[in-house]
Amino acid sequence: MVHTLQVKSITHSFGKRSILSKCSIECKTGEVIGLLGRNGSGKSTLFKILFGTLKPDQLTLYLDGYWKGNPGLNAFIGYHPQEVMLPKGLRVGNLISMYVKNSESQNKVFYTQGINDMLKKEVGALSLGQQRYLQFILLLNLDHHFVLLDEPFSMVEPLYRNLIKEKLIEYKSHKGFIITDHYYLDVLEVADQIKLIKNGEIIPISNVEDLRVFDYLSDQSILY
After folding, report:
1. How far, CA to CA in Å, does 17 sit from each of 21, 38, 56?
2. Annotated domain spans of the chain
3. E strands in 112-152
4. Which residues have C-beta within 8 Å of that of residue 125, sequence separation ≥ 6?
5. pTM above 0.90?
6. What is the full per-residue pLDDT of the chain (224 aa) written as tens digits?
């Protein structure tokens, strides 16, 4: 079954400063939405609103066509923040058993490339990139239909960045992703659609030239 998340008329301000102005975005299971924008444009604010940790000034949200009054749909929306939220004193193997309850999903995590080498180590002994990759893999194996990924490629070693992209392609068969990152080349590689937040609005992007037209990229930017 294809699930649909529709968010309309998101408006939010901090004091007199307008951050989001009647933004709308839609995501379906089976697709990756890339959300780009400069620092301070409102990307993380949008994610916190969708996850329910920040109350917006205005929001209309539909899940599979049904209106939802509570934006914190934790049973349906997972959130990978920029910060690592995992307990540092636990061994990775024990953490997986506590965090992922389904035995089939547990085994899938245990044997995921890059995770099996960590199992006997404490979370705090891992590099920051390893911790962020572990947090990403754990979130993928929960039951959320939609996952918000805030800077998943940042502070992550190239090996894990490539593994993250592989997992996004694999898991989008039954999940929908909205991803934002300043490593825009990685986002472009995996995204089915690209959106840009600018001046509080969400703008659809058709090609790289649009990113230059809307001043996200300079004319001197080179894509490899």
Report:
1. 11, 16, 13
2. 4-213
3. 146-150
4. none
5. yes
6. 899 999 988 999 988 889 999 899 999 999 999 999 999 899 999 999 998 888 898 988 888 888 766 554 567 899 999 999 999 999 999 999 999 999 999 999 999 999 999 999 999 999 999 999 999 999 999 999 999 999 999 999 999 999 999 999 999 999 999 999 999 999 999 999 999 999 999 999 999 899 999 999 987 665 54
**Maximum CA extent, the chain:** 51
Measured CA to CA, the distance from residue 179 to residue 177 in angstroms comes to: 6
Instruction: Say which residues have a Cβ less than 8 Å from residue 118's Cβ, sequence separation at least 6.
Output: 92, 126, 130, 134
Determine how many CB atoms are found less than 10 A away from the CB of residue 24: 13
Q: For domain 4-213, which CATH number applies: 3.40.50.300, 3.40.1000.10, 3.90.950.20, 3.30.830.10?
A: 3.40.50.300
Structure tokens at 55: 């109350």
Taking the C-alpha atoms of residue 113 and residue 134, their distance in angstroms, rounded to an integer, is 11
